[in-house]
Amino acid sequence: MSWIDRRLDCMDSQMRDVLTGAALAFVLRGLGAGLAFALNVVIARMLGAEGSGLYFLALSLTMILSVIARLGLDNTLLRFVAAAASRQDWGRVKGVQRLGMRVAMAAGLGLSLLCYALARPVSEGLLDLPGLATPLRWMSFSVLTYSAMSLLAESLKGLKHVRDSMLVSGVLYPLFALVLVWPSIRLFGTEGASLAYALATGLSALTGWLMWKAALAPQVEAAKPFPISEMWASCRPLWVVTVVNGAVVPWLPLLLLGYWGSAEDVGILGAATRLVTVLTFFLVAVNTVLSPKISALAQDGEFQTLGRIVRQSAFMVMLAASPVFAVFLLFGAATMSVFGPDFAQGGGVLMILTAGQLVASFLGPGGFVLALSGWESKVRTAALISAVSMIFLSLVLIPQFGMTGAALASSAGLVIDRIGGAYLTRKHLGFHSLAIPEILVKRLHAE
Question: Could you name the domain of life of the organism this protein comes from (predicted)?
């Protein structure tokens, strides 16, 4: 028997399930990360730093609006779909997903139209970037399409359709965009990149809808009416959390840099930010598998088992990402030069963002676990503290230090959020979420 076989025999069945599912998720997420990286390189090399800056500004505005449009339903749909599916209550599964999608699509359509209408006043009046107006108009449609794509992926995740969820949210849209972006940019310039993104997320959302229909086709039970008050009670505090983690922390520094800095600075910071997302694919891959298991274990009160799985998963994620951390920290300028010679000056920015991700990885996914365990209001408090801190740091650092200040503010906001999540997990669930080997945890408890 090999060493690996002996280690697997020693693991409990819960962790073996996570590792088995994570293997597939790693492959798909790795493929998606590679496609997204190729997409960003193509955009950067075809548009240059200034054109990329306009693209990333349009993207940041629409991503903020998309997070608002989803109303915190990402984790809510995942939680309720997973809980109902575990009981094979297919009428409730259909009912909650239908209600969530209708509410989010109405909000997404309204914000898409608002973004389209205000594209010129925002670009020329607020940011003093006339060249941003047309790319922002085209990108505005992605508020609706990206919202639909994200919620369909979370719904599929709740059914434990890991492969389909990962394909929709991580593989198909960069693949579609990569196919569309070259001819679109050749024909329309920066506007073409925005058009390719909107079309790609729309095609991915359509694919996700077809996958959802196919997954529930064998279940003939009709959808049960789901009380909107129950959904709102869950997603209301999570809305604040998703706005902070999905909009404020990753995108607001970029947007504020567009106000105080140049389009070239935004292009460099945007490229570095998108590059650092490669580090998160390990975490997303594991969380995709872990999400329904967290909901089920928390609902059953199995917090000791849940804590062990969370710690082991966090350590596994940090270990898997360590080579990428090392490359980004040691060879920042060389890595950024892949986007083009103008981007090499962003090496320091890449190192700052990577350091923030490294600390966040060590602190573990405490807030994510709390949100799926019924402690949404506590997660909201931690998210608000991190948002206020990051906004304050952005206002102080960006006017003085430009894109370096934006990177520092973004990393600080992420770390503060993870510190709050780790503390609250220990306080309310009784275990810590730090990426520490389980053998060390046992020794500490023994002492």
Answer: Bacteria
pLDDT tens digits, one per residue of 221-235: 888 888 888 888 878
Is the pLDDT confidence value at 22 over 70?
A: no
Report d(CA 288, CA 77) in Å as an integer: 14
Q: What's the number of domains the chain is made of?
A: 1
Angle ∠(168,245,54) on CA atoms, nearest 5: 75
The range of the structural domain enclosing residue 194 comes to 12-446
- 421 has pLDDT over 80: yes
State the Cα–Cα distance between residues 33 and 27, nearest whole angstrom. 10
Judge whether 5 lies within some domain: no
Q: How confident is the model at residue 149 (pLDDT cuts 50, 70, 90)?
A: very high
Residue 6 is assigned to a structural domain of this protein:
no
Residue whose structure tokens are 């996570």: 18
Would you say residue 2 lies in a domain?
Answer: no
Q: What is the 3-state secondary structure (H, E, C) of the chain?
A: CCHHHHHHHHCCHHHHHHHHHHHHHHHHHHHHHHHHHHHHHHHHHHHHHHHHHHHHHHHHHHHHHHHHHHCCHHHHHHHHHHHHHHCCCHHHHHHHHHHHHHHHHHHHHHHHHHHHHHHHHHHHHHCCCHHHHHHHHHHCCHHHHHHHHHHHHHHHHHCCCHHHHHHHHHHHHHHHHHHHHHHHHHHHCHHHHHHHHHHHHHHHHHHHHHHHHHHHCCCCCCCCCCCHHHHHHHHHHHHHHHHHHHHHHHHHHHHHHHHHCCHHHHHHHHHHHHHHHHHHHHHHHHHHHHHHHHHHHHHCCCHHHHHHHHHHHHHHHHHHHHHHHHHHHHCHHHHHHHHCHHHHHHHHHHHHHHHHHHHHHHHCCHHHHHHCCCCHHHHHHHHHHHHHHHHHHHHHHHHHHCHHHHHHHHHHHHHHHHHHHHHHHHHHHCCCCCCCCHHHHHHHHHC
435 vs 289, more confident = 435
Residue 354 lies in a domain: yes
- Kindly report, residue by residue over 301-320, the tens digit of the pLDDT: 677 777 777 787 778 778 87
